[in-house]
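Bench notes, afternoon.
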Amino acid sequence: MKIEEDIRKIIIKDIKNLGYILWGLELSGKSNSKHIRIYIDNEDSSIGLGDCEKVNLQIKDVLENTDLVNFNFSLEISSPGIERTFFNIDQLKNFKDQTILVKYKEDSRKDSVLGKLLSVSDNHIEIMNNKMESIKISANDYITSKLIYKG
């Protein structure tokens, strides 16, 4: 996880200066060759191909000129999409009453729940599941979640 946080720290300012929000970052691959996927968002409009190309050019240059990235990499810039992944609880605040799938830790295992997002705070989220039960998930147990589009 450390390399993801280090990359996040060096790219967030450039993404912000270009007028975008760093929504999330995923890193996959082997130690000598990785795929870096960066999700960008915008408060004013949807993300298009031109937005992704602009960010790609800037971030590729940043990553190629840092000692932190000492491996071969491919770079992908994308919008979070209609069924976006939420990388932290704070991102959920604007999606109250939406259907989400939440992955979280319970005791020593991983679990998931599908339901309506009732509330979000810094300490927990509350979900109404299909059985109409309210489930509180602490920020410490939260892993990730995904918006479920119901068109």
